[in-house]
């Protein structure tokens, strides 16, 4: 069942002088089992939208249907925990949510809250560690003696351990070196491919969006301005420039080649294909 | 958590907001002394008049200044209850079995409420009309004379301004961590006592860690730019008092004088 968002409006600090309308009627259907990117400028409402998905914010107007739950202004979430177990939310810089003495306890914190038995916690923890590229030698160490990248892995393990159906990631690779960022993204992609998890990725990194995502949702000024399959979306670099985001390198290269008079097939995004096309056309010209 | 009125600067241009922060702080101190002088209820008339004038000149709404009183409501109710139970002097007003209300309880509570209200309104006027940085600059200048006896005026002012600067940042950080832990199944409202302790820990520990991180980064950034609190400094902004400041201070001293006279005559 896809995630359905209907006419979602959210107003911060309603009824005060600091009132601020962050979402102005969002309509969105997010397919299950796919990787959907949510992009947009700072302040376009991405984070506010994302916080509705596990009931952290209650809609001011409109509704959200997710994982068998219907959330609208009148919903009083009694079993918010059950929803939050199904929809895992990884916030920006999740390493700042670590607090336990040992990594084992920190990863087990979520499951404990969701009522797992100690055996289940141990089993789930042992299963999740290799996924984030850590081993059991870490379990008894303090999370605060790790490097930044390792802390982030532990924090993400703390969400993955809940085995959520839907995984919402807010800039999971921000601030990581390119190698770790790639590993991190590959981890999420394998979760999507092997276990069929629905993934929502909030990102500013268009290279990642092009490489890993199936769908793109563009947020602009509290509304969805565009929703398209990724390969369709990057045929229109002007959509990106509209929201002041630079297109990925491949798209820029294609643009330049086209300006030089080359005929590049619109839906090829691999350097090899583009090189082949250029080569063929140079040859034909000679 | 974004609705805290107390201590928030409002960018409204007015006679009061253009005044020198030093004179505003001095006036606040003088009037605070006046508020605590036991001159009876009539003694508050000059202070109230002064406050009304200040509110008018600062273009602030009374409702705004009163809003910061809201969090105090319960404290005042609590105080009233305690006073009724403890103070058994003056005339008996209500007698309900063992439950008795004496006039002194009401009078004492009224005094405390009036004093608190006046002080909060005064402080709100000060913080609403003065930018935090100007305020700390004013404090620094006023503490300057005490440097001779070893008081680090500049360091104190710098600490205050850094603390003020980080209040919104820490509020934002708190919200973020609360959301993150809520997503991990923490329930701040329900649950047993033990669960609540763990909920609070899951908020406090990360908050401290990130606050110390920020402190570290800020300290490095300041040192990288050659900051040394013991060296003489010049200011981009030079404070200057003009006639409005002198008149306002003179009036506040007058209010204090009237209250002292009333107290002495009355007793």
Describe the protein.
The complex is a heterodimer of chains A (about 290) and B (about 270). By secondary structure, chain A is α/β, with parallel strands linked by helices. Chain A has helices at about 45-50, 80-85, 105-115, 120-130, 150-160, 180-195, 205-210, 230-235, 235-240, 250-260, 270-285; strands at about 5-10, 20-30, 35-40, 60-65, 70, 85-90, 165-170, 200, 215-220, 225-230. Chain A is built from eleven helices and ten strands. In chain A, the strands form two sheets. Chain A has a six-stranded mixed β-sheet, sandwiched between helices. Chain A starts with a strand and ends with a helix. The model of chain A has no long low-confidence stretch (mean pLDDT about 90). Chain B has about 270 residues and is mostly helical. Chain B folds into two domains: about 15-150 and about 230-265, no CATH class; about 170-230. Chain B is about 65% helix and about 5% strand. In chain B, strands 1-2 form a two-stranded antiparallel ribbon. In chain B, strand 1 and strand 2 (about 100) form a beta hairpin. In chain B, helix 8 packs across helix 9 (about 195-225). In chain B, about 25% of the residues are buried. The interface between A and B is medium-sized, with 29 and 20 residues.
Outline of this structure?
The complex is a heterodimer of chains A (286) and B (267). Helices cover 40% and strands 22% of the residues of chain A.
Topology of this structure?
The complex is a heterodimer of chains A (286) and B (267).
Chain A: E1 3-12, E2 20-30, E3 35-39, H1 46-52, E4 61-66, E5 69-71, H2 80-86, E6 87-90, H3 103-113, H4 118-131, H5 148-160, E7 166-170, H6 178-195, E8 198-202, H7 206-212, E9 215-220, E10 223-229, H8 230-233, H9 237-242, H10 249-259, H11 271-285
Parallel strand pairs in A: 3-8, 3-9, 6-7, 7-8
Antiparallel strand pairs in A: 1-2, 1-4, 4-5, 9-10
Chain B: H1 15-18, H2 21-35, H3 44-57, H4 62-67, H5 73-86, E1 92-96, E2 99-102, H6 103-129, H7 132-143, H8 153-183, H9 193-224, H10 243-266
Antiparallel strand pairs in B: 1-2
Helix pairs in contact in B: 2-6, 2-7, 2-10, 3-6, 3-10, 5-6, 7-8, 8-9
């Amino acid at each position: 069942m896809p995630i359905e968002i209907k006419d979602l409006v959210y107003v911060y600090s309603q009824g005060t002088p600091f009132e601020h309308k962050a979402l102005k009627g969002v309509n969105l259907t997010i397919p299950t089992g796919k990787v959907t990117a949510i992009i947009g400028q700072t302040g376009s409402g991405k984070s506010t939208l994302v916080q509705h998905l596990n009931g952290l914010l209650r809609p001011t107007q409109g509704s959200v249907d997710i994982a068998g739950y219907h959330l609208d202004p009148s919903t009083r979430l009694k079993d918010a925990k059950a929803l939050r177990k199904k929809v895992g939310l990884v916030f920006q810089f999740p390493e700042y949510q670590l607090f336990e003495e040992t990594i084992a306890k920190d990863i087990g914190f979520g499951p404990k809250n969701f009522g797992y038995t100690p055996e289940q916690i141990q089993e789930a923890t042992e299963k999740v560690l290799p996924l984030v590229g850590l081993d059991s030698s870490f379990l008894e160490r303090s999370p605060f003696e790790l490097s930044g990248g390792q802390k982030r892995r532990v924090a993400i393990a703390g969400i993955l351990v809940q085995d959520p159906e839907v995984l919402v990631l807010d800039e999971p690779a921000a601030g990581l070196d390119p190698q770790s960022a790639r590993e991190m993204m590959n981890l999420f992609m394998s979760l999507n491919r092997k276990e069929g998890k629905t993934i929502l990725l909030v990102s500013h990194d268009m290279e990642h969006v092009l490489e890993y995502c199936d769908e793109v949702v563009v947020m602009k000024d509290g509304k969805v301005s565009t929703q398209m399959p990724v390969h369709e979306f990057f045929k229109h670099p002007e959509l990106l420039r509209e929201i002041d985001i630079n297109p990925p390198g491949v798209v820029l290269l294609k643009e330049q080649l086209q300006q030089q008079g080359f005929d590049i097939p619109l839906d090829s995004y691999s350097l090899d294909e583009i090189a082949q096309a250029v080569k063929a056309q140079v040859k034909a010209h000679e | 958590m974004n609705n805290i009125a107390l201590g928030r600067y409002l960018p409204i241009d007015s006679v009061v907001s253009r005044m020198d922060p030093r004179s505003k702080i001095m006036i606040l101190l003088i009037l605070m002394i006046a508020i605590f002088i036991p001159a009876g209820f009539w003694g508050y008339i000059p202070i109230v008049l002064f406050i009304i004038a200040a509110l008018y000149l600062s273009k602030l709404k009374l409702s705004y200044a009163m809003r910061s009183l809201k969090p105090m409501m319960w404290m005042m109710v609590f105080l009233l209850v305690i006073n009724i139970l403890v103070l058994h002097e003056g005339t008996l007003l209500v007698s309900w079995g063992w439950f008795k209300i004496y006039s002194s309880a009401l009078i004492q509570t009224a005094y405390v409420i009036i004093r608190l209200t006046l002080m909060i309104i005064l402080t709100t006027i000060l913080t609403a009309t003065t930018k935090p940085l100007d305020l700390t600059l004013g404090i620094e200048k006023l503490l300057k004379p005490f440097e001779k006896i070893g008081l680090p005026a500049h360091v104190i002012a710098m600490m205050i301004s850094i603390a003020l600067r980080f209040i919104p940042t820490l509020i934002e950080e708190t919200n973020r961590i609360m959301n993150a832990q809520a997503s991990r199944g923490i329930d701040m409202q329900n649950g047993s006592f033990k669960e609540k302790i763990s909920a609070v820990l899951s908020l406090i520990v990360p908050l401290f860690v990130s606050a110390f991180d920020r402190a570290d980064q800020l300290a490095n950034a300041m040192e990288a730019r050659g900051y040394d609190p013991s060296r003489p400094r010049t200011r981009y902004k030079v404070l200057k008092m003009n006639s409005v400041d002198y008149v306002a201070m003179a009036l506040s001293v007058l209010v204090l004088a009237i209250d002292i006279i009333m107290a002495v005559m009355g007793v």
